[in-house]
Input
Amino acid sequence: MKNDRKEELLTRWMDDGLSDEELRELEPVLAEHPELHEERADYARLREELRAAVPSEIEPPFPDFFNSHLERLVREERRGVDKTDSRRGEGAFNRLWFWWMAPAATAAVVMAFLLGMKSAQPANQGGVVDAAAGSEVYSPLSDVSTEIIFDRESDSTLLVVEGLAPLADTDLVTAEGFLDGEHGYYVNSENVY
Amino acid sequence: MNFFRQFASNLVKGPVPGDAAGEGGSDTPSDAELVNRCQEGDYSAFDALVTKHRGRVYAMIQNMVRNEADSWDLAQEVFVKVWKALPKFEARARFSTWMYRITHNVVYDWMRKRKMETAGELDDNLLDREAIAAGAQATPARMARPDEALSQGELRANIEGALEKLSPEHREAILLREVQGLEYKEIADVMECSIGTVMSRLFYARKKLQSLLTKS
Output
């Protein structure tokens, strides 16, 4: 018997998947190697152990965020496809108008840049700017809201979380923060989240 | 336009109970029904498919990659690819088999990229060895009795160690067969090889696994 055929029959024999005819075909091999019966029993045990030890399903961490983040990715993907389609449709017409519109567009870009530079000056003296745009904060609790505030001067980010249950004094790490009335502040200057 | 209307009106969905293999119970929509609805632009049907299959996809990736963060990102990539390819899905194979094939491609692309980045060998040592995250909910095929738990922890560590020593192809064949319960033909479809190659991989993977576990 060819090796490939032998391997195939042995593999299926280990899985109890041989027909009577195939079993008869394999019998000479089994007679020649009686240790295969023991191997088969060992493998049946190993299969049980594998199934008990290796999970067939693992719920990803933060499963609800998994779906909502995926939805966002799909939406972005969809937007990209729509843009490509509309660009394709415009085609030759746009190429013609490009030469007319190019100087006007350049002027518009320069104007937008100058306006942007002006409006980017700090509007408030504290230098605290809402930088939530483009950031994403996930909380597994539905009744908790979060706000991200970026302070340009100190190059630090403040994360404000509303709706959490009150903390006990013992919950606070005051060694690296401080207590102010009923509020506790935890300061982390090393890690970036 | 239908897509965006559905997208906006179906943001909150619950888990979809039922048959993990994908054919659905009596009162839950089957994969085929959900796929049909997806192909008509119904995002809620896609969300239901994701909820139904994310555990298996994530487990398969996690068992191959052994890194929680990468597994999460790769599982997202799998489902984005599934979404993009769904209009072309013709149901010649089961949806779950087709999804495992996309998972296979994503994982092997990731391995190839890692290989280029590290300029190392594409072997198991290249993969990180983080255990399954404490926060992740794992569903073993069989629940352990409490008195078995301690020895199972040890056994699990031994088995995971032995699996990591297998080549990615051998490990994937074993996982698809013994853990995910796929037929030989389905494994061949997923791994894009002949049934003979699947048999050969299983044959050597089992021998190697037994010998590794005997040593340990």
Chain B touches chain A through 58 residues (CB under 8 Å). Residues 95-118 of chain B form the longest helix (24 residues). Chain B has a mean pLDDT of 80. The longest strand of chain B covers residues 137-139.
